[in-house]
């Protein structure tokens, strides 16, 4: 990282950023190059490892790309605005980039993922109906590497 003064190294701060984000961007390996899709998500930290849960249709490009290559990149950010500084304009932000593996989960792991996703989206305790749950694929992304960066207000 070029700007070490902006680096975030502690997991607690990175988790706090995830708590405040409403959307992540998922980078997948497409046939013709990278494919990035914005997604709602849920997450938890287990033994110091961040696990992100996403959902989608049981078919389609995202589903096919994960099945073909489970290596993914996750990006999350919060933009706090723009300010003028002595040498121009800068952005006030907090951001994360993580690398890991995505896997479709079933059973209790699927239910847990959906619960975390719904809670993060503001619907804790929401009961999904069985038909909708059966049509939905839930993926757990185990982040093996996570870095953070921020430019706070001066």
Description:
The chain is of the alpha+beta class and 154 residues long. The protein has one domain: Pnp Oxidase, Chain A. The chain is 25% helix and 51% strand. The chain has four helices and eight strands. It has helices at residues 11-20, 61-68, 107-120, 130-135; strands at residues 7-8, 24-30, 33-39, 42-46, 49-57, 71-85, 88-105, 136-151. The protein is globular and about 55 Å long.
What is shown here, in short?
With 154 residues, the protein is α+β, with helices and mostly antiparallel strands. The chain has helices at 11-20, 61-68, 107-120, 130-135, and strands at residues 7-8, 24-30, 33-39, 42-46, 49-57, 71-85, 88-105, 136-151.
- Top-tier CATH class: Mainly Beta
According to CATH, the homologous superfamily is Electron Transport, Fmn-binding Protein, Chain A
Q: Roughly how much helix do the residues carry, as a percent range?
A: 10-25%
Shape: globular
Euclidean distance between termini CA atoms:
21 Å
Features:
154 residues; Pnp Oxidase, Chain A; 8-stranded antiparallel β-sheet
List the helices and strands and how they pair.
Blueprint: E1 7-8, H1 11-20, E2 24-30, E3 33-39, E4 42-46, E5 49-57, H2 61-68, E6 71-85, E7 88-105, H3 107-120, H4 130-135, E8 136-151
Antiparallel strand pairs: 1-8, 2-3, 2-6, 4-5, 5-8, 6-7, 7-8
